[in-house]
Amino acid sequence: MRRGVTATDLVLHITQLLRAQKVVGKFVEFYGEGAALLPVPDRAHNRQHVARVRCDDGFFPSGPRVS
């Protein structure tokens, strides 16, 4: 993320994108270079918020970075 952008900023943006696509009752996978660089607390923060748009779950794939 760019300097000054918080995990909350990110999750609010993701939430807006999911709502615009009417993603309801789905599993959301967070992936890519940016997702791989997020620390565990930020991953948890993002995962928890997918429920706010009525998604079933959100997950990050396993990888070498876990903290």
Based on Cα principal axes, name the global outline: globular
Relative helix content: 40-55%
**Secondary-structure class:** mainly alpha
Strand elements, count: 2
What's the assembly state of these chains?
A: single chain
- Strand count, sense and closure of the main sheet? 2 strands, parallel
Question: Roughly what is the average pLDDT, rounded to an integer?
Answer: 81
The low-confidence parts are none
Classify the beta-strand content into a percent band: 5-15%
Treating each run of at least 4 consecutive H or I residues as one helix, how many helices?
3
In whole angstroms, how far apart are the ends? 16 Å
> How do the strands line up in the largest sheet?
1-2
Task: Describe this protein's structure.
- It contains three helices and two strands.
- It is mainly alpha-helical.
- The chain has a two-stranded parallel ribbon with strand order 1-2.
- Helix 1 runs parallel beside helix 3 (40-49).
- The model has no long low-confidence stretch (mean pLDDT 81).
